[in-house]
Amino acid sequence: MAIVTRVRSAFNLNRQDALAGMRIATIGLLPLFIGSLASQPVLGLMGYLGGLYACMADVGGAYQARALSMGLATIFLAVVGFLATLAGGVIWLAVPLMFLCAFLGSMMSVYGNIGSKVSFVVICAFLIILSMPASLVVAGERFGVLMIGGAWAMLLSLWLWPLRPYRPVRVAVANYYRTLSTFIERVCSSTSYNHETFSVAVSEVDGERSRVVTAQENARAVFVQVRSAQHGADPIDQHLLQVILNADSLFDIMLALVSSIRNTAEHPYMARMPAFLRQIGSELATVLAECVLAIERGIGEVDLSKLDTLKGKLDAYDTDLSRAIPASEEDYQARVSTRYLLRRLKAMIGTMHLIVDAVQQLNSEEREEPTGISFRPAANVDLQAAIETFSDNLTLRSVVFRHALRVGIATALAVAIYMVLQLPHGFWIPLTVLIILKPDFGATLQRAFERMGGTVLGGIVGGVLAAIIHSLLLQYILVWLLGCVAFAYRQRNYTVFAFFLTPFVVLLVDLSHPGDWQVSLLRVFNTVIGGVLALVAGFVVWPRWTREQLPEQLAKSIAANRRFFTGVLAAYLGQQYEIETLRTLSREARLENANAAATFQRVLSEPKAMQRNVKHLYALLSYNLQLYDSITILAAHLSTLKRHHTLSGLEQFAEQAENVLQRLEEIVCSGYHPISTEQFEESVQEVEASLQHLRETRLAELSAGLIETPNREAMTKFSPVNIELERLAHEVVSMAHIQD
Predict the structure, then answer these.
(1) Percent of the chain scoring above 70 in pLDDT
(2) Whether residue 342 sits in one domain with residue 247
(3) CA pair distance 187, 182, nearest whole angstrom
(4) Which residues form the Integral membrane protein YccS N-terminal domain (predicted)?
């Protein structure tokens, strides 16, 4: 079952990825077809490379950023194409130029995503065209065709800009809601009520949670990009922001719900809840899917009638629980826990109403008319600052500089090898090196397995297709179909991308050399050589181990959790707080925790000799993630509070917990050793004593028939504190004594 789930996840594809694959395949196919008709297959290939690499330089998001990255890529592709054509026939010139191009291109990553993407495709084009030397006249022709290919790609990618300027942010927000839909359905459908199976269920949704965090950050980033390019205020901006904020609220409620389920896992009163949760999850996922379409397309209705019916069932369930649970001390705590869970479910349904209202207001407001292209950079380019940024990284202390040297040396060596040995299609060796090499060895190793594994399997398929298909029309159709599938998976699953890309390339070569199935063997052979060379370079040339980065990232995640904890506890202590401030703290903590988890996964892919203290690192990471979940529950409960109640010892508890976490941040990078938690544990005992006194007082009131008293709301307020206190204290103490 796990294998089936993993395979389904690997081949999962959304509408936007599919459309992107079709667009890239179509952009590339037309120049090839025109070149074939004009008996100029090489120029057709240049047009294809210009269009393909301009598309691959597309950073996504706002149209302004996309136009900038694709425009820069088009210009530099033409320039390096011209130079590579002239230098390709002279090995003593080709090898140094390859090093220079790869080194300078890799250094461009200091300028962010645009610099990284543009430089990557420029290096790819240079090393490919380097294998096709020609005269000055041909170099000029290639320059022009590469420019035309890039312009063609920009036209097909950006034509909606003047018609629907908000399209990028709608797509990003819709993808955020799409990941939320999957997350909610996974949480509710995989939950069962005992601690062992629940822990398994939680591990199954961790991957979905990280995808939601990524989509959330992307939606916010694209919104800021689009908003910064607009002139003046626009009501659409407010509606889009509200749609994003409502999604944030739903995500926070879901995270609190996961921990609430854990708290009620063994209560016999919740026997009907798993089936009920699955029903709620299914209905919520359906409504969110309708919201995705409404956000993405700007039209469509969302049906909330089933959710309203579910809310009625929740109310009835709540009433039944109140009657079923006795008023003993132990069962009173069960009542509080289970009713809190039901309250979270009701909050989810209420938030869904807010989401649908916000989406409908957005769609009623936005009836976009053509506005023309507005290209306003977010800030003036500071040339002096850009030069200083580059020069500051010209040192071996810079990770970017070391990686640029590594890429330059490895690709130049690969070019020298295939030129000296005169290997057919030898450019696949340096191309593989460039694709596989990453700044840290763990990521390099992972990409090597993905690239080589996908290429070997795809090479078998490509060889068979090239051997049995001789119809030119059928070859073009297959090239287009394989291109659509391959490029659709380019950013989703690299192994699948490499698998479909190989037969795509084999048939592409077969268009000019029919029946040449042996090219699939050459591609596999050259890819394996390039993969081995990349691994050697990653291991030998100034290797960067992820294990060395993990302590710093863990310290950042602990610090982010501490700030979130401080903000939430301040609210419980009666201090003024802003909901948006807590949301920001939560989002920052969630992002740092996701980064720490991703970094740890890369550590596991490194050689065993580099995985020292990996068990301690995993324990610290796990406790820190659980700490975030506990804080999230407390934050989610704040919205239900009506007035301030004091709890003896809570202020000291907050202060001591913050001190322990702050001390832990300081020592995590220098080596683990126990931290004194005596004062913290004393503060925990004081809070527990206060809560015990509050419970006893409330039970006495219930026995006397006193229902509406100040202690009733106080008990409601501090029940989540009581529920999470032992767990939160355990997490903090365990982190402090990680080597005990």
Answers:
(1) 80
(2) yes
(3) 9
(4) 76-255
Q: Which amino acid is at 484?
A: C
Choose one of 491, 510, 544: the last residue of a domain: 544
Rg of the chain taking only CA atoms, in angstroms: 29
Number of domains comprising the chain:
4
Q: Are residues 581 and 535 in the same domain?
A: no
For the packed helices 518-540 and 428-436, what is the interaxial angle rounded to 10 degrees?
A: 40
Whether residues 625 and 479 share a domain: the answer is no
**pLDDT tens-digit series, residues 203-214:** 556 667 778 888
Kindly state whether residues 427 and 565 are assigned to the same domain: no
Confidence (pLDDT) at 70: 95
For residues 56 and 121, the answer to whether their CB atoms sit within 8 Å is: yes
In a domain, 5, yes or no: no
Other C-beta atoms closer than 10 Å to the C-beta of 678 total: 8
Residues 426 and 575 reside in one and the same domain: no
Average pLDDT over the chain reads 81
Tokens at 249, concatenated? 């609220």
Please say which residue of 127, 146, 162 terminates a domain. Answer: 162
Integer Cα distance of 498 and 481 in angstroms: 15
Single-letter code of the amino acid located at 318:
D
For residues 254 and 349, what is the distance between their CA atoms, to the nearest angstrom? 11
Residue 208: in which H helix or E strand, if any?
helix 195-228
Closest to 165 in 3D by CA, of 238, 248, 234: 234
* Boundaries of domain holding 25: 13-162
Nearest to 596 by CA among 653, 562, 629, 553: 553
Mean pLDDT of 409-420: 96
Mean pLDDT within 696-700? 72
- CA separation for the pair 625, 251 (Å, rounded): 16
Helix (H/G/I), strand (E/B), else coil: 672: coil
Residue 36 pLDDT level (bands cut at 50, 70, 90)? confident
**Average pLDDT value for residue range 175-184:** 88
Nearest partner of 225 among 265, 298, 294, 169, judged by Cα: 169
